[in-house]
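Hi R.,

As promised on Friday, here is the backbone we talked about, encoded as structure tokens. Could you run it through your design pipeline when you get a chance and send me back a sequence?
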């Protein structure tokens, strides 16, 4: 609700019978709102919705007097078909000659200002005005309703001046004023309530008006005088965090050029055995094709539609060249079993869902301008290719070679042209394309392109699963055997004595393996302690007496010497200063002893519910004495509201984080120059059963000699060298870490250096159930 309106606006409200005197006090040329009515949510706020004006301004070629009289004011003109391009080279959109009547839907009054430069180089301006209410009067005859044209007006120039006052629009308005061409339309007495929610919806709608993959032939800026902070350019937000992207370019020689980007898997972690399978020895599935994420190939229409009739191919050719871009997104995090079977790349499902809510669906763009309502959410044409029906008829898993993609997981753009694809004609109401036989063939082509993406993804995942089964056959047999043993013990009466004894033997063996695993926990901890001691042996060697010796020596020295006598002497020759330095070394050694003893406390060797927050904060305190002097910052980040516990041995958790922090410590000290030294640990709930943990530092990252990041988890692999090039590492640290995570049925993955981090590790551990102790 505005605090004041002009006298003219006050008069207009009164002429409409809205009684503005009940809300505003008119004094001179201004009417001021009474204070008690200033609430924007009050019923009185609806009073001034009619005073809102909508202005649409462009810096295009503009329209002259002839264009207004012979085209703009005449229903169903074909001028856009006869002259398909504007003077500025952009393909004209629309060909029915009725689009201008949308102005009537927005508001009752319309003023159009336009400016052109004629062949003589002279600027010509005009103003066209219409009152749409005249068409609604009883007995009105169309030929008797007129609009007004005034030549030589300054309306367009005035609108450019107003636009120039908006931040971000000044250079565009100045350019349009210099060129002297363009059009502005002002709609008043609007028919809708333009609330903040309506503006947000408009921004989203305008965001998909042009295809995100193309260079825009025009830019859109949305400004609201009532809320200028929300004013900005409208952009199509392209989410490049896809799993698959397929580009299909239909050409005039009966061929389709495909470009496929595989972004779902970590290609460095694909098993070598995968490419030994028969299905993976042909292009584009060979190991060489996976060395780059992008593959390109060409197929003919006959290859894509074997056995189709000549009539089908004739209609396909008549459609003409067009392009299709498809993006596929998973929306659910993989399960623990899937994470072991497939080396999935990490992603943020919530970010994907939010993007697909706005930009999802497969949309058609004609000459870089959206054809409604294809692909629009909450519309009957959202799934205009019936992908949902295909999925319902065949709910196969992605590992099946006939897997169909769900419509909610795919976004796409289909780029056509009014000139190149003239057989695809808009309906007269501008709501879609006339469904001719050519349009149905057009749909078949796009569905076949989608199938190309489906077949590629399912073929890769199917062969990955089969490879996993072969490499883990023993585990699968063991799992099935244990399951069978439990079933037999649950119903012993249904089995013979020999079978029952065999089932009991399997159960006893399983318990023995659990006990051995617990023993290995202690062995891993001792190995970790050994790596710490080896790495810091030079500091431990400085300890040659008990802590406190330096205070005793200082006290004895003070009996014979006064420390004040050494005030002006270099500290290197000051015995009291030397003793203080020695005391600092003793404290450092004591810290290491405390660290080693705390790691093997008996309480840490018992399995319990470990509170990750308190445990890591305690670990940070232990390491602080070593990190702070080297200016290394350890930052702990927990998900808001995170309160999960891990059922684990504390000594195992120590093995993981001590190895990681130790590696970062040595990398910073030995392999990094100036700049901040940071270690970041992120803890979040990955699923109902798993805690996700991300460890990062900004050090030098994995050494270049390591070709595959997963190699760092192998036994005896180390890149630590002394100055003479001799190996100094134990090759146990990361092997222990991976063993610990694997023993808890978790997953772990290392990453190479990027602009955001030097070293990064992601792993998961099980969340303890409330009843577990």
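Update: got your reply. Pasting your designed sequence below so it's all in one thread:
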């Amino acid at each position: 609700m505005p605090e004041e309106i002009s006298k003219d606006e006050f008069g207009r409200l009164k002429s409409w019978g809205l009684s503005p005197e009940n809300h505003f006090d008119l004094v001179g040329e201004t009417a001021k709102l009474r204070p008690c009515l200033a609430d924007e949510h009050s019923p009185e706020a609806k009073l001034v919705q009619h005073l809102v004006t909508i202005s649409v301004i462009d810096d295009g070629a503009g329209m002259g007097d002839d264009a207004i009289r012979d085209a703009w004011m005449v229903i169903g003109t074909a001028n856009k078909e006869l002259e398909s391009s504007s003077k500025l080279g952009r393909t004209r959109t629309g060909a029915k000659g009725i689009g201008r009547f949308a102005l009537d839907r927005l508001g009752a009054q319309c003023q159009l200002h336009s400016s052109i430069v004629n062949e003589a180089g002279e600027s010509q301006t005009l103003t066209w005005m219409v009152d749409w209410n005249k068409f609604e009067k009883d007995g009105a005859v169309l030929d008797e309703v007129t609009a007004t044209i005034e030549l030589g007006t300054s309306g367009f120039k005035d609108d450019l001046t107003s636009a120039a006052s908006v931040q971000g629009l000044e250079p565009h308005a100045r350019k349009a004023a210099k060129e002297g061409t363009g059009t502005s339309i002002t709609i008043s007495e609007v028919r809708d309530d333009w609330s903040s929610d309506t503006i947000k919806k408009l921004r989203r709608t305008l965001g998909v008006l042009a295809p995100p993959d193309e260079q825009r032939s025009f830019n859109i800026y949305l400004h609201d005088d009532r809320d200028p902070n929300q004013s900005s350019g409208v952009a199509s937000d392209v989410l490049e965090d896809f799993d698959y992207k397929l580009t299909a370019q239909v050409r005039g020689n009966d061929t389709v050029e495909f470009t496929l980007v595989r972004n779902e898997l970590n290609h460095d972690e694909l098993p070598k055995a995968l490419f030994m399978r028969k299905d993976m020895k042909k292009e584009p599935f060979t190991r060489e094709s996976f060395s780059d994420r992008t593959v390109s190939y060409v197929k003919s229409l006959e290859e894509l539609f074997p056995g189709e009739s000549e009539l089908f191919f004739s209609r396909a050719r008549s459609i003409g060249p067009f392009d299709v871009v498809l993006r596929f997104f998973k929306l659910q995090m993989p399960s623990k079993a899937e994470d072991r079977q497939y080396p999935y790349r990490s992603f943020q499902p919530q970010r994907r869902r939010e993007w697909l809510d706005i930009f999802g669906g497969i949309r058609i763009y004609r000459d870089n301008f959206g054809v409604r309502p294809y692909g629009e959410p909450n519309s009957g044409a959202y799934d205009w290719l019936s992908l949902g029906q295909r999925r319902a008829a065949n709910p196969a898993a992605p590992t099946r070679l006939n897997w169909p993609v769900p419509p909610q997981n795919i976004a796409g753009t289909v780029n056509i042209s009014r000139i190149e694809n003239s057989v695809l004609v808009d309906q007269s109401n501008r709501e879609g394309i006339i469904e001719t036989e050519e349009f149905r063939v057009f749909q078949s082509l796009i569905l076949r392109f989608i199938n190309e993406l489906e077949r590629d993804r399912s073929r890769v995942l199917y062969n990955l699963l089969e490879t996993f089964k072969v490499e883990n056959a023993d585990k699968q047999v063991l799992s099935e055997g244990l399951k069978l043993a439990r079933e037999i013990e649950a119903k012993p009466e249904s089995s013979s004595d020999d079978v029952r004894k065999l089932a009991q033997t399997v159960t006893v063996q399983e318990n023995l393996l659990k006990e051995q695993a617990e023993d290995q926990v202690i062995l891993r901890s001792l190995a970790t302690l050994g790596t710490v001691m080896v790495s810091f042996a030079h500091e431990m060697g400085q300890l040659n007496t008990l802590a406190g010796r330096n205070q005793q020596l200082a006290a004895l020295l003070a009996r014979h010497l006064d420390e004040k006598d050494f005030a002006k002497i270099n500290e290197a020759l000051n015995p009291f200063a030397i003793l203080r330095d020695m005391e600092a070394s003793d404290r450092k050694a004591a810290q290491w002893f405390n660290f080693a003893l705390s790691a093997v406390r008996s309480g840490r060797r018992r399995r319990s519910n470990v509170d990750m927050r308190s445990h890591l904060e305690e670990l940070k305190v232990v390491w602080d004495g070593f990190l702070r002097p080297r200016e290394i910052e350890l930052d702990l980040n927990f998900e808001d509201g995170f309160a999960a516990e891990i059922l684990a041995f504390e000594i195992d958790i120590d093995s993981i984080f001590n190895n990681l922090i130790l590696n970062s410590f040595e990398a910073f000290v030995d392999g990094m120059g100036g700049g901040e030294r940071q270690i970041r640990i992120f803890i979040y709930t990955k699923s109902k059963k798993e805690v996700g943990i991300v460890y990062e530092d900004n050090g030098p990252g994995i050494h270049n000699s390591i070709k595959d990041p997963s190699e760092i988890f192998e036994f005896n692999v180390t890149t630590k060298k002394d100055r003479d090039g001799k190996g100094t590492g134990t090759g146990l640290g990361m092997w222990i870490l991976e063993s610990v995570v694997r023993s808890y049925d978790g997953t772990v993955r290392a990453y190479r250096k990027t602009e955001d981090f030097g070293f990064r590790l992601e792993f998961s551990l099980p969340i303890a159930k409330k009843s577990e102790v």
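One thing I noticed while checking it: The two ends are 61 Å apart (CA to CA).

Thanks again,
M.
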